[in-house]
Amino acid sequence: MKKTTTQKTKKQSVRTKLISIMLLVSIVPLLVAVAISYNSSTNSAKETAKQNLDWQAKYIESEVDKMLIKAETSLGSFASSPETIAFLKGELEDTTVVKQQMVQINESFHDSNTIVMSNSNGDMVLRSDDGDLKNIGERDYFQAAIKGETYVSNVFVSSVTNSRNICVAVPIYDTNGTTVLGVVHKTLNPDDIHTLLAEDAEEAFVVDKNADMVAHSDFEIAATDEAQNFSSSPYMTSEDETGFYISTAKGYPVYVSYVRNASSGYVICAAKAQKDIVAEARQGAMLIILTGIAMVIAVLVLSIIIANNFTKPMLEVNKVLSALANGEFKKTDKFTKRTDEFGQMINNANSLIDKLSTIVGHIKDSTNTVGESSDELSEMANQIAATTESVAVAVQQIASGAVEQAEEIQSAADSTNQITTAVDNVQSSTNDMSNLADRMKSASEASSNSLATLQATSSEMTSKIEEISSKISSTQNAVANINERVEGISGIAAQTNLLSLNASIEAARAGEAGKGFAVVAEEIRKLADDSENLASEIRILMDQLLAEAEQAVTAAALVMNGNEEQQKALGETLFAVEGMLQDIEETVSSVSKISGEATNCVNSNTVVANAMSSLSAISEENAASSETTGASVEELSATVTNLAESATNLRDIAEQLNEEMKFFK
């Protein structure tokens, strides 16, 4: 609160007002000058930026135009060559001269792009890089050039090279100058335009006829990047060849000047952020501000010196009066030699302090004598009262402690009984646990024996399955041998059938003499057919038997694998059960130890309980004696307190008088 009042007083002082007035006299003209200068500098910077951007856009347009004109001129020279015209008309058989001319023109560009010549149907007839010849009849640059006009295409992504390209296409006229025989075109890399922009401009970009960005000075555009489209920009919606506008597409004002290239229809834009344009104006204004601040500081120093010359004498008088208001007699030795009104004020204040100091000194001497006597009496009474009260408090604390001690001993005795009961319960539970562990051990041993028997049975089963698998394999071999014999029977039956057929033919040739032999041959043929049929049936049955035998072998293998896994699991289980048996034996041993320790706890706790009962009776007797002593001490304390109150009243009267005189230091 005192600090706030002091700050408020300083703000309202004469010194502060003098300094404030002189500062205002210097600051107001400075602010007006800065505002005018900043506004003028900003407007000038904006106008200069417009002119620079316009010049920059036109310069870049001329550089881009040079690049395109070079391509158009080179291609036009190639197109007007007699060898080129003769080649397209089919009058030139040797293409070496035309190809060499095409390669030389392409090398003059110092890039990796190609020059391609196509006939009037759009079929490629010659390439500078010996690449595949394709049809480009549907390409926009071909369709425009075949109509007789030089054409610069929009940016497109090549399906072959997967790169961004620009195409310059020039028509090839016949010698009559009216018939278009074909088109020669060259691909250009938009990154070359990016390099040009990056070298000649802070921020510039080129947009094609479809409003897609061709290149930007700040970054290269990859074929996989999504094309930026500026169809809503003023240079696309307006037919003006040049122009200027302020764009806010980036979220902040950007000055943009643009120029349209006549040969390609491309728009070349130069841009600069408004914040960068006005930065120089801000720097000029900042210089003026710094100069003004220096002037303000100088005025401030001068104001402080003048204000101090007026206000310091008044502050000294104020300090003297402030000290007197607080009861302090403080004179000042400052400004006493001044002969003006401030010097007279200082000297009069010092004289007043001397007179008041003498009067108050006599009064304080008398007050101190009375105060000292009352202090001695009050101090003696307080000492007696304090001593008596301390004794009473100590006796009362002893009595309270004895009662609490008796209660705690009784509580400890009750707790000891509860501990005895709990230990008995623990001992009973330990016995139950020991019996349970014995039963668990017996059950685990029985499980271990059963698992061992099961493991032996499983091993025997595996051996039997191996024997069965071996027998089935033998059966498979036997069936295979039978099949071989059946094949032999089938061969014999076929041979017999053939012999019977030959015999029938010979019997027919013999006529009547061979009729009997023909009957025999027919019977032999029937027997051969029956043998063949039986052999086929046997083969089918043997194949079925062989397939079933293979299935049986597979099933036996699966059973054997499952049995092996079962034996492995039984072994692991048997190992775990044996480990569990060891843990159970250790548990039985630990339970026996716990049971013995619990018995010792019961015996010890009984001795402690008896001792606590005796101690409780003694504590109750001590508590009763302490309460009687406390009552006697309280009566003595009340008597001494009355004496102390009387002495205190006398001391208070002396202190009140002394405090009133302490106002004067």
Automatic annotation (TrEMBL):
**Where in the sequence is the signal peptide annotated?**
none
Identify the residues that the record assigns to the Methyl-accepting transducer domain, covering every copy.
Answer: 380-637
The keyword Transmembrane helix is annotated on this UniProt entry: yes
What UniProt keywords apply to this chain's record, in alphabetical order? Answer: Cell membrane, Chemotaxis, Membrane, Transducer, Transmembrane, Transmembrane helix
Source organism, top-level taxon: Bacteria
- Compartments, as annotated in UniProt: Cell membrane
Any single GO CC term annotated in Swiss-Prot or TrEMBL for this entry? plasma membrane
Which residue ranges run through the membrane?
A: 21-38, 284-307
Tagged with keyword Oxidoreductase:
no
Domain HAMP, first and last residues per copy: 308-361
Q: Which GO terms describe its biological process?
A: chemotaxis; signal transduction
Stated membrane topology is: Multi-pass membrane protein
**Chief place of localization:** membrane
Which InterPro entries does the record cross-reference, listed alphabetically? Answer: dCache_1, HAMP_dom, MCPsignal_dom, Sensor-like_sf
SMART domains associated with the record: MA (SM00283)
What PROSITE patterns does the record point to?
Answer: CHEMOTAXIS_TRANSDUC_2, HAMP
Q: Which family does it belong to?
A: Belongs to the methyl-accepting chemotaxis (MCP) protein family.
This chain belongs to the protein called Methyl-accepting chemotaxis protein
Q: Which organism is it from?
A: Pseudobutyrivibrio ruminis
